[in-house]
Specification:
6% of the residues lie in helices and 47% in strands. It contains one helix and 16 strands.
Length: 163
């Protein structure tokens, strides 16, 4: 058998029926041009000692001149890092976010709305808990009612060393 330019044929023989199944994963999926939000994430420390605190800075930006209803940011945290729940509760009390959830390595932040052209900066307090080198799942932002249009951000990376 030989293959040339995407064709598969049997040499000196009859045609060969075949099927191809393709599946793939992407570390950071493609963002939608129709998403009206932008998300940026940055971990303050790329190298940290076990037990030390750090901050994952999350920035959500409304790119249009209209108030956006029900924005959501799902922030991927690197393995080995733990978010401080008491700080998340304080963000709700101070109305910087409307609500939050923590699911595994992801922190989900909710707002009622984001004003036109507004930039919202949220510092998430985290603690280095388990030594190792980790990459977070990609973070994303979108509007609750248009979750098919997402903006993605590269997963944060960290190396945690033992005490």
């Amino acid at each position: 058998m030989s293959s040339a330019s995407g064709a598969l044929k049997m040499t000196d023989g009859s045609s060969l029926p075949y099927a191809v199944a393709v599946s793939y994963n992407s570390v950071k999926p493609a963002s939608s041009d129709q998403c009206k939000l932008r998300i940026e994430t940055l971990l303050k420390d790329s190298k940290i000692v076990e037990g030390s605190p750090s901050v994952a800075n999350v920035t959500i930006t409304n790119t249009i001149d209209e108030t956006l209803p029900s924005p959501i940011a799902i922030v991927g945290l690197p393995g080995g890092m733990e978010v401080r729940h008491d700080q998340l509760k304080e963000l709700v009390k101070s109305d910087r976010i409307a609500a939050y959830e923590v699911r595994g390595r992801e922190v989900i932040l909710y707002w009622r709305d984001i004003q036109p052209k507004a930039k919202v900066e949220i510092p998430l307090s985290v603690t280095a808990a388990v030594p190792g080198t980790y990459t977070a799942p990609a973070s994303r932002a979108y509007l609750y009612y248009t979750d098919e249009f997402k903006q993605w951000a590269e997963g944060m990376r960290v190396t945690i060393s033992a005490k």
